[in-house]
Design brief:
With 155 residues, this protein is of the alpha/beta class. 52% of the residues lie in helices and 10% in strands.
Length: 155
């Protein structure tokens, strides 16, 4: 399975210390140079900047050739959607609600940070409740209703 990822899922998986679940769930994880730049930005947490400074072998950085222009989302998300359209991955990993909406318009199969965590739990790679509790300690925005739905779906 292949996943093209936007910045947010990688950022939070690194902060949680569980980024290594990605190569256990997916055969290829692909990002754009724009995502790489966002992960190295000064406002990005130190742990994320340290991780991306020496990216793992399983992370592929690839430029897109297509173009998606939509003023509802930032240029980096537009470029990530364009790459996903071009590569037709199994999943496009993104958390931003506007970007998710646009990705769905292009018939992309989306998954977010919580969805990746849920799949990792189902694969026996982590404790779901503990990981979601840790996620809530970051600046990740998600409603407690969604967290409850995920926990109820995975007893």
């Amino acid at each position: 399975m292949i996943v093209v990822s936007d910045t947010s899922p990688l950022n939070y998986l690194v902060q949680l210390g569980i980024i290594e679940i990605l190569p256990q769930l997916y055969d290829a994880v692909i990002i754009l140079p724009e995502v790489h730049r966002e992960l190295t930005a000064s406002k990005t947490p130190d742990s994320v900047r340290e991780w991306i400074a020496m990216p793992p072998d399983w992370l592929e950085i690839r430029q897109n050739t297509g173009l998606v222009i939509d003023d509802r989302i930032d240029p980096g998300e537009c470029a990530a959607i364009a790459l996903a359209i071009e590569l037709k991955p199994d999943y496009f990993a993104v958390d931003d609600s506007n970007a998710r909406e646009i990705a769905l318009e292009y018939q992309l199969e989306i998954i977010g940070t919580v969805g990746i965590i849920e799949r990792a739990y189902q694969a026996g790679l982590l404790n779901l409740k503990d990981t979601l509790d840790q996620l809530l300690q970051t600046n990740f925005f998600i409603s407690k209703t969604v967290i409850k739905l995920v926990l109820d779906r995975n007893p």
